[in-house]
Automatic annotation (TrEMBL), chain A:
This is 39S ribosomal protein L2, mitochondrial. Residues 160-282 form the Large ribosomal subunit protein uL2 C-terminal domain. One of its GO terms (cellular component) is mitochondrial large ribosomal subunit. It comes from Drosophila hydei (Fruit fly). Coiled coil: none annotated. It comes from the Eukaryota. Keywords: Ribonucleoprotein, Ribosomal protein. One of its GO terms (molecular function) is structural constituent of ribosome.
UniProtKB/TrEMBL annotation, chain B:
It is found in: Mitochondrion. The gene is LOC111601295. GO terms for molecular function: structural constituent of ribosome. This is Large ribosomal subunit protein mL37. GO terms for cellular component: mitochondrion; ribonucleoprotein complex; ribosome. One of its GO terms (biological process) is translation.
Amino acid sequence: MQSITRLLSTCTLTLQPHHRGALSVLQQLRTKTKVVEKPKPGAGQQFRRTVHFPNEYTVAPLKITHLAGRDPVSGRMVAKGIGGGIKQQYRWIKWVRDGPSEGAPQEEIVVELLNDGCRTAKVALVAVGDELKYILATENMREGDILKTSRVIPRIPVRPNDGDAYPLGALPVGTRIHCLEKNPGQPCHLIHAAGTFGTILRKFDDKVVVQLPSKREFAFDRTCMATVGRLSNVEHNKEHVGSAQRMRELGNRPRSGLWKRKEGKHGRKIRRLPPMTTIAPPPLPKEQEIKLTLNL
Amino acid sequence: MRLTNKLCAQHIGWHFKKHWQVQGRRVPRETGAAAELLKMGIRVKTPDELLNKKQEFHPVDIVGIAPKAIAEDQTHPNWHKIACHLFRDNNVLVGGLPQAQVLTNTIEINTFPQQIEDAVSNSQYSKAVDRNVQNAIFSSHLLDAQQVKLPKVKLIERPAFNLPRLYGISHERRNRLVINKLLLEIEKLAGRSVTARRKLMDNVTFQTSVSKDNDLVAITLSGDKLISSSRALDPVKGKFNGELPDLYPMKCVVSMKKQHIYTENNFYPIRSEINCSHPHTIVSFFDKTIVGNIHGSDVTKTQLYGRTLLKAFVAAAARAKQINGVTSCTDLQKPIVVQCVQTDGREFHFGVFQLNTLNLNSSNTTKNYWFHRDSIELFNDCSYKCGRPHLDGYNAEPFRILNAFYHSS
């Protein structure tokens, strides 16, 4: 028995030099720092999920992949506190409400109001012609409602109903709006969360001043499209998560050590709001940059 | 080690490396050098042209183990320039029965034809028949020996719950057993004189394509059971008037998938020369795990009714085109009547469809007829209670109607 053990030990000894060569290469690699570029959170990119969008628009629920706070390119952690949760299906919202630029408005019918797990407001399935699409549901929207969409700006403001989409210039002062276009031609990106709304405050020149849910005032172009009404699921901000487990179901990881008394982050000094800002035109596309390599 | 400022301060090599990370990214600015060179007749090449020359690969046509998939583009043999709306078994019309009515140019009549109404109300059965029907329900819903994994159950209010998987009789088998056993009871009551004039077929397919107000619609639907008869059903006596529902601003082809690759075939499962080729009754099953809206919502009652109507329509239209020629799209000399039953094993929806015209355009004054009543339940609950099979709220009406349908001629 002892002799076998001795034999085996010699075997290992003779095999070792081969391994050592490979290991040394690995170790050399280990000491080299691999530079990984990762995006910063808070720049409009989300790290919760990727949605697998097909080439053509569809109302079929889409499949998603959870990212758990990681950048999908590098795979590195970017946003903390995200992970897990119930796998939801994503409903693709058609952000651009395109209507005729002259003549009578286009009419659409609300077929069904649905809860979408990937967003807080409800979504409405809308039919027009042989087309089905999703839009965000407003507070007072009901199944069977007829919605109007138009790009015409008449001399006298229209009398809109909930869910109608018009340019800002066509709406009367004091109207509550959501799904607002930041610049003409851009998708309607502003005011999407449950129960939120913007208010049209005043008009000057070819600008319309809207108070956003943050209470700040911005002047938009009068041709920017907006949808009328307050978004559905008004009680969303009053809802209690209720338990730690529910928080996990929502896809958020346990948090601790985030409370910082002295940094002023939790509870700021109340100051006057900044004055009205005119929305800047969309930035020019970034120039293509060349990445030169240097093997040092 | 990470390239930190401290580390770079210690080592000039690492410092350069860090510096290069920033300076290595350059946006080339237009200096006018290229234009100057061109003026002098010197061609400007990009480094890629010299360093990374493009290699062109010529694909070798290899005969593989399986035939190659045909590309789904304009080279496809079934590609058409005009797109067609397709309707298949796993879809329902989002607008429900009104949409099906407009699509098939049909008016709705909320009773059965008089002959069937009389047959239903006059039917009297012995207690033994009722007992046999109840036994049929037991044996198909509870006592069958099949045990397969049933579809996953999710609680809407508790989406995180993973409930234990249930084993039992599959939906398809349960439906088939219930229909087979009910038809067996009916055949026993009917006697040889009637049954000799009927033939039963399982899993048949109907296919037809129709044009509706400049839209092309291709419908392919299956009948899980087809009862054919040696004589065609007589047209319903009387004239019926009604208006088509208004779908504005929807079109009647909404929620049907639009495709360029399709075939405009007409298919009726039995050749017309065969003795029992006339469509009599179609039984189709409804399984909510297979049939659904394209947007993923549950199927509503009116969508279920619309599906029954479309099943009856496609059978009648496929038969009419088989007799009169595929291209016919006019009023029929002799209307075709088809009875249709849709069931999920518990709930039954019956209807009688009369195809008067194949011209579905809204300008046509001749309308097709759809006689139906609201769906009814065969029972409320069929389950084990205290270890014994228990049937709650048994209703004999579906059996009576099915019997009347089988007997009608």
